[in-house]
Every structure is written in C-alpha cells, then in structure tokens.
Amino acid sequence: MFGSFDFGILLANAPFLWNGMLLTLQLTALAVTGGLLLGVVLAVLRLSPIKPLAWVVEAYVNFLRSMPLILVIFWFYTLVPKLIGRPVSGFYSVLIAFVMFEAAYYSEIIRAGISSVRRGQISAAMALGLTKMQSMRYVILPQAVRNMVPVLLTQSIVMLQDTSLVYVVGLRDFLTSADIVASRDNRPTELYMFVAIVFLVICFSASRLANQLRRRYSL
Amino acid sequence: MGSYNWNWPILLKEPYFGWIVSGFGKTILIAVFAWAIAFPLGSAIGIARTADNRALRLAGTVYVDIFRNIPLLVQMFLWYFVVPELLPADWGRWVKRDMPYPQFITAVACLGLYTASRVGEQVRSGIEAIPRGQRDAGLAMGLTPTQVYRYVLIPVAYRTIIPPLTSDFLGVFKNSSLALTIGVLELTSQARQIEEYTFAAFEAFTVATVLYCLVTGLVIVIMRIVESRTRIAGTIAVGAQ
C-alpha cells in the first residue's frame, strides 16, 4: 500500500513547507507569550478581593471556554478589522483570537496552581511578619509555579496543535501549506502523513518533558 | 463599529433560520455519536493502562500517545483523505463511493477515536487514584481480577471522574466544529455560511455562540446533579471544573 509513496514530493516542496512551519512556530510562540501574560492578569483579578471584578473575569473565562476555537477564530477574524476600521493582516486577527482564547485556559491553570498552596503556608508567612506582597513573592509563588509549569507546558502543546485551525481562514501555517501542495499535486497521503509525523515527534517529546518536569519539580 | 448595520430579523428568515436549526442538530448528533464511541473505547483503554498485563498496558499507552500528539484537524484529514487510499481496494472504493453520509461518518469516527484517548487518561487516573489496598483486598477475598474491576475499582473510579469526563464531553461537543473542514454543515459552518450570504456576520456568530454556551451550561448543570446524586458517602467533592 506504500508502494507508490513518493518522498520526492516532500523534498521538492521543503522550502515551502518550512515557511509554513515557521509561521506555525511564530504563531505558537507569540500566542503562548501573550496568553500567559493575559492569563496571569486574569488569574490575579479572579483571586482579587473585589468581588465584582472576580465575577467579570470568571464570566469571561467560562464564556470563552464554552466556545469552539474555530468560532473564536471566525469572530476575531471578522471583528478585529471592523474594530480598527481598516483591513488587518489575518495573522494579527488570528493571533489576538489565540491570545484571548488561551488566556482563559492559562488563567485557570495559574489559579489552580496558586490555590494548590496550602492555607497554612500563608498563615505562617503572615505570622512571620511578611507583607502580602512578600508572602506572595517568597512563599506562595515559588510553590505554585512548581505545580503549574508542567500543566502550562501541556497546555502549550495543545496550543501548538490548535494553531493548525488557522486553516479555516487560509493562513499559510504548516498544515495549510501541506494542504496546498497536497491538492495541487494530488498527493494527500504523503503530505498529511508527513504533517502528522512531524507533529507527533514534536508533541510527543514535549509531553515527555512535561512528565519529567512533573515528576521532578511538582510538590 | 458605529457603521455596522445590525440586522437581527434576517436570522428568522428562510433559509437562514433552517440552516441554524439543521446546523445545531448536526452539531449535537456528531457530539453524541462520537461520545458513544469515545466512552466505551476510552474506558477500555483506561482499564488496559492499569492492567497487570504488560502488552495491554503498552497498547493503551501507544494509543493515547498517538492520538493526543497529532492535531485533531490533521487526524480529520488523515481519516478523510488518506485512510480510504490505504484500505484494501474494495473497501476503499466502498468508503469513497457507497458509504452513506461519508463526511458525517468520518467526522464522528475521527472525533470518537480522538476523544477516546482523553477519556482513557481520565479513567486511568481515576483507577490509579484508588488506594492499592482496595485492589489487594478484593484479590485476597478471592475475586478474580475482572471481578475486582467490576465490583471494586470501576464503581469508585467513575464516580470520582465525573467532572473531567464532563469537560471531555464538552470538548467533543466543541470539537465537532472541526467537521466543517471536511464539509459537514454543522453549527459553526452554517454561521459562516450565513455570513457569506447576508454579511450579517455578528448576528450569525452571536446565535452560534449563544447556542454553544446554552448547551455547555445545561450539560454542566445536569452533570452537577448527577455528581451529587452519585457522590460516594464520606468523601468530599473532588470536582475539577
């Protein structure tokens, strides 16, 4: 069944596919960075003593988490140019969609990490005379971070896989580039298998790393 | 946004109203059928990963590693474009020419097999969370390994993993939108189609969003009731989300 498998097509289109891969990596890196930053802000707001603020953030997080990512992409792809009032490159619209979407998931992980620190630790820090900021900085966060880093890494692997959904708006990421070659040269088997194997290798290695981190650093 | 002309009534006009209804129906059907594959298969995988037999454990691990580490959209394309080519010629021809609703069935199979890997992980962690002594006690009482699973491990494990299983079900419900990439006219793709025909983008997307949120909310409420009804006496809720 693999008799007609044509590896040459992969070599012949290597530069084109590599460009797609670069876009995938770029989008992932930017979306992870933006998502983490916004996620930290959301998590802090959600744990804030000002209740209405916490509720608004909770509503935002639950709202985005009940939407399919594809629909979120469509929303922002249409919404961003309208809000700005002029055409915007699809890359930026999609990037904003990913940041807003992933931040909801990251904030839940960060919140769970902070909540996983036992209450006694906070009381002990207070009893020692540390200020709120100091107990956050020296007692809570060092423990929380160790618990949440493996989960954040796992979520970022999911995010890398999710970037393939930009296919729906025709952005030329790795999968879309492969798809273009596949339909032009009528070689779906080679191209899709290649994409699957590349993702499998990257994501499998990264998830092994996440497991190791969990075993070594989690409390 | 000041220049945007809202046109809500258009959603009630035909054919757009019918598109929303049929898209919503397909979304629900895909999710339910895919879950009907994912739940039993995922249970088998989760149990296999906790079995004493090494080969079974390895098979479960390999399944989970493969299905979780390839993007779902790539899996969708593999099932739709590649697998029919790799099948024996007769089968491939049947899949391509004679199989009814090819896109719908492919989407269901793809989502079901993918979600099974997630369910498998939940079932495994549910079983592993049970203290080893329970299994040993069951075996010491003369139960066979199958009976230990049937009467000791599974009844406890499934009740503790109701919250993560709920979010996996919601996951397959949301992921059903990926079926649009192979041409299934489910809710998200109908919203997109209404946008293309009427330019009423925000109205169409809003309706889709509201429907997704409603179902999600409804499922969460129902599962909270199920969870409290089935709570194991003497435990506190382990609830994830």
Notes on the protein architecture:
The complex is a heterodimer of chains A (219) and B (241). Chain A has nine helices and no strands. Chain A has 219 residues and is mainly alpha-helical. In chain A, helix 2 runs antiparallel to helix 3 (51-65). Chain A is flat. The model of chain A has no long low-confidence stretch (mean pLDDT 91). Chain B has 241 residues and is mainly alpha-helical. Chain B has one domain: MetI-like fold (Orthogonal Bundle), CATH 1.10.3720. Chain B has helices at residues 16-49, 54-68, 72-86, 89-98, 102-128, 132-140, 145-160, 162-175, 187-198, 201-230. At the A-B interface, helix 4, helix 7, helix 8 and helix 9 of A face helix 2, helix 3, helix 8, helix 9 and helix 10 of B.
Ends apart, CA distance between termini of chain B: 35 Å
Q: How many separate domains make up the residues of chain A?
A: 1
Quick one: biggest sheet of chain A? none
Main β-sheet of chain B: number of strands, strand sense, barrel status? Answer: none
- Helix amount of chain A: over 70%
- What fold name stands as the CATH topology of chain A? MetI-like fold
Keywords:
heterodimer, A: 219 residues, mainly alpha, MetI-like fold, 9 helices, 81% helix, B: 241 residues, 0% strand, flat
